[in-house]
Amino acid sequence: MSTAPAEPSVASLSLTVSFDPAINYAFQQNAIPVVKELRFQNDDVARKNFIIRVTTEPAFAAPVEIRLQGIGSGGEYRVSPIDLKLSHDFLAGLNEKISGWLKTEVIDGETVLCSRSDPISLLACNEWCGLVSIPEILAAFILPNDVGVMTILNRASELLREHTGRGAFNAYQDKSRKRAWEQVAAIYKAVGELGLRYMVAPASFETTGQKVRSPSDIIAQRFGNCLDLSLLFAACCEQVGLNPLVLIHDGHAYAGCWLEERSLPEPAGDDLQHIRKLVEKSEVTVFESTAVADEGPGTLADAELLARPHLETKKPFRLALDVRRSRISRIHPLPITGQEGAATTSTALSGRSPSDTGLGGRDFTDTVEVAATPATKAATRIDQWKSRLLDLSLRNRLLNFKETKSTIRILSAAPEQMEDVLAAERELSLQPKPKLMSEDDPPPRRHLHQATAH
């Protein structure tokens, strides 16, 4: 996110805009607000009936005008976020990254009081912006309904029937971690038979982003990098009802999947220790996605061994993306257009001779324990409305708070007392941070940390 003060055209006026420096088609499809906050600081002249206007160049969004009846001398106007309606046709039609501008003006009659023009990158429709924006937007590039996914699952079902006697993908219905693991293993083996070749990911892709290959593109081109293949496995697992994970360190991505019907508490996190504990308890499988591009892909158990060093590495861990939790947070897959029907035979996708190594195996000593849940009454329409208003994603500034130039940190040795003072809704005055005391200074007065109430 970019935040920078404008250079005011009139002394004492200021205009600050916080926005995402790179956007793509996924922003438009998931209604992600581009402008997070706009703040206008007035000078010592009271004003009436003026306009704040936001426009874009090229026209990747409709203009926005905010009409204000008045603002006092030295007053401040703040809005967060701004409903900037992105153009579907413009962003969906981009095949390459282009540069644009976000222009903001404060207009009083015929006079432009202050303005600013900020650069913004408009990415290709299949280009992920990296972790500079909300991390869970990566889930939009996981495409479970891509025709290539069903091609892989047709072969995976044959492998399941051949090695377990049951070809059905029944997700977590058996309440068995072993059965969930076997379904992931069959998907892994089916992808391994594609004859894929590895292609290195762009440098610092986790920060700057990259173009993402769809499952159909991977099958057609027989190429994929670590992120492409991790998203492919996530799409296949999601399509059969499993809850996949995508894990990213600096310079590398790999895949995972829940072995019981659970999800992380948030769509995106960076707690590698928590992931490590889930793997140790066999609640999650984590595997090296690029192993399927080796001459000998092996089995899922082999790929799990290759992923173990990632869980112990000292490389910075950037993201654990929980796809199920992201969908609950209303991050939907990008729409798919212009695809033909899926191939129905395994020969349509086989690029490598099937091996006789089987699916591999793992020992699971217990089945999934499901706690009994009390019967609940049917949700009313008002309950449904309340649920939709509850945003647990990182778009919620209350959950993902970041200090900016418009925030004030209050120093207090007793925050519970400060909370009581604020809850009393009395007028307060904020005192500046006290200077460090020397030995010659008098002792501090009691309650110096509290704001003064009037």
Please provide a written account of the structure.
With 454 residues, the protein is of the alpha+beta class. It is built from 12 helices and 20 strands. The strands form 6 sheets. The protein has a 5-stranded mixed beta sheet with strand order 3-9-8-5-6. A hairpin with a 6-residue loop joins strand 5 and strand 6 (64-71). Helix 3 (147-164) crosses helix 4 (177-192). The relative contact order is 0.12.
Relevant terms:
single chain; 454 residues; alpha+beta; five-stranded mixed beta sheet; 20 strands; elongated
Low-confidence region ranges: 342-348, 370-377, 443-454
Mean pLDDT level = 84
Number of strands: 20
Count of helical stretches:
12
The biggest sheet, with number of strands, parallel, antiparallel or mixed sense and barrel status, is:
5 strands, mixed
- Content of β-strand: 15-25%
Class per helix and strand makeup: alpha+beta
| Apparent shape | elongated
